[in-house]
Amino acid sequence: MKNYLYFILCTCLLINSALFSQNKKDSLYLKADELKFKNPTIALDLFEQSYKLCLKKGDTLKAIHSLISKAKTHSHNMNYSKSYDDYWKALLLAEKKKSKILIGRTYHGLGWLYSFYNRDKESLKNFNKSLAISKELVKKKHVSTNYIFSDYFAIANFYRVREQHIMFSTYLDSCMQIARKVDKTYYLEAEIAYKHSLEKNYEEALKIFNETKHYFEKNDPSYLVIINYLIGNTYKEKGDIPNAKLYYIKSLQQANEISSHANYKIMAYDALVEIYQKENNYQKAFVYLKLSKELNDKIFGSKSINNQELFNLKDTHRIAIEQQEKLETIRKLKLLEQEDYIWFLKYILLIVCVSFLFLFILIFIRNLRIKHKNEKKIIEEKQQLELKRKNEILELKNKELTASALQLIEKEEFLKNLKNKLSKQKDNVDVKIINRMVNTIQGNPGSNWKEFEARFTSINQSFYINLKEKFPKLGQTDQKICALIKLNFSSKEMSSLLGISVESVHTSRYRLRKKLGLERNDSLSDFINNI
């Protein structure tokens, strides 16, 4: 029980410790974010503590957030060298964690940093990298379109500072297109106001600037450095020099109070130098020129302690990353080449397999067809042999039947002749007794036909059936004539077997031709044999 309670107590302590650490990390970051403009020195220290604590606890993503915020704070306070270092630390960690969002935000910050040094090529390269990542993440619905907006806004700002007004307007239009899908932003309104100023719509520009100024006074006083500078530019273009000077000075005062946007201090100094030169007030022009030079040397000069390394192309991290990227690209290309070669081999193997399969199917179908053809041929040959055998048997039986019929006819002829001869020799012969004996042997024509018909039907079973189906109106005599014609009997043989005269047989044949619908030139024998 005690062990169980001890386990619970330890668990609770661990949970409380974790919660305390989490709260501590969050509180350090939030406190630093609150002080970054009021007391940047303390804010930088708190960001560093938050970064180290996050790394210690394994929360790399929050550590990266702390580094990026620290880099921004250094940048606002003109310590671009340390800002550069922090951004590259953040980029290395973000790439290690494969966090696309933080990689994009780091490129975004590096774009601003390079722009302060007028390294335009590197600046746009980093802004465009950030923009490409943002578009990819928005397409996958991992982030909102605000990320694309911030990248377009940064590039528009870049071109506005360099007075490339066409490109500025192009990217500003892109911002405005996206702004329809996101919440209204006063940062964009300020840039729109400046565009009105370029188009000489000064009153509209000043109206929008005043609206944005009220917003930034409450929500982001650091941005008033830029707003007051842009208002000063608008008055300058309008020709209202007193107000222009007033707002340039306000921009300088705001920059000194909040320690932000130091690059605009140089721009404001230069604008005042230009105004006082035109007014022939060379004393004040010299004062602001001196201030501009001192600040420029402090930030960008070769003797600057904070930025000397950066001025000397402090690109160690960038070069290392680029080399790594090149090596990684080469490695990926080799892998792709290997994969392409493997896929090529697979493709060839697939074609070969499909070809063999297709060939096998063709051979199989061909053999199957040959087999079926041979089987069909064998069956047909068997059927023909069977039919031939049946026809031979039928023909043999018909010959036997014909021979039997002829014997009956010969018997009838013999008895008839015998009877005639006996009737002529009446001496000592009882004719009546002889005739009776002959009649007993002879029988009658009807019984002869019945015997013949019985034997004929047993041999040619389907003949009468087919004949009756095709010609149902034929009489018995017609059917008898047809049977005898099938056996190739002559008219005389028919008359003897049927017990009628030859003329009657001819008459019956004539009538039969009519009933069968035969023409004069049609063969009656061929017609009946085909039934």
Short description:
With 531 residues, this protein is mainly α. It contains 23 helices and no strands. Mean pLDDT is 80; it is low at 1-23.
Name the features:
531 residues; single chain; mainly alpha; 23 helices; 0% strand; disordered N terminus
Describe it.
The chain contains 23 helices and no strands. The chain has 531 residues and is mostly helical. It is rod-shaped, with a radius of gyration of 61 Å.
Number of strands: 0
**Element-level helix/strand string:** HHHHHHHHHHHHHHHHHHHHHHH
The oligomerization state is: single chain
Q: How would you state the average pLDDT, rounded?
A: 80
Instruction: Tell me the span between the first and last alpha carbons.
Output: 113 Å
Q: Helix count?
A: 23
Helix content: over 70%
Radius of gyration: 61 Å
Q: Beta-sheet strand percentage?
A: under 5%
Shape: rod-shaped
Structural class of the helices, strands and pairings?
Answer: mainly alpha
Biggest sheet, open or closed, and with what strands and sense? none
Q: State the low-pLDDT regions, or none.
A: 1-23
List the helices and strands and how they pair.
Layout: H1 2-35, H2 40-56, H3 60-76, H4 80-97, H5 100-116, H6 120-139, H7 146-161, H8 165-179, H9 186-198, H10 202-219, H11 224-238, H12 241-258, H13 262-278, H14 282-300, H15 308-311, H16 316-424, H17 431-442, H18 445-459, H19 461-470, H20 476-486, H21 491-498, H22 502-516, H23 524-529
Helix pairs in contact: 1-2, 2-3, 3-4, 3-5, 4-5, 5-6, 6-7, 7-8, 8-9, 9-10, 9-11, 10-11, 11-12, 11-13, 12-13, 13-14, 16-17, 16-18, 18-19, 20-22, 21-22
